[in-house]
Amino acid sequence: xxxxxxxxxxxxxxxxxxxxxxxxxxxxxxxxxxxxxxxxxxxxxxxxxxxxxxxxxxxxxxxxxxxxxxxxxxxxxxxxxxxxxxxxxxxxxxxxxxxxxxxxxxxxxxxxxxxxxxxxxxxxxxx
Length: 127
What we know:
Layout: H1 22-26, E1 42-45, H2 58-66, E2 71-72, H3 73-80, H4 84-96, E3 100-103, H5 114-126
Antiparallel strand pairs: 1-2, 1-3
Helix pairs in contact: 3-4
């Protein structure tokens, strides 16, 4: 990592992954997202590469950068090494502000789309 940060698209680790207090601070103490987010829901950035996000928390900047390529909620959590609950809360907040687009899986008779699950599994295996 050079002085300008990691290369475009590379995961950006949270500031202090070992801190047990950090996830609580990131979400403002909230444990539930504003909207239901499936583990396999796909997230894409709604911001341009040139948009200034310097006033945003580091987790939001990292998610925005990472999701320039469509990722599942599970992938975002794994790649950024943040707890799944924290990723869900932050992604839901970003969706409410229009910073990311969330594509929820369509359930057919209560069952998730098999093709989507296969794509998520494939993405997780690449990790």
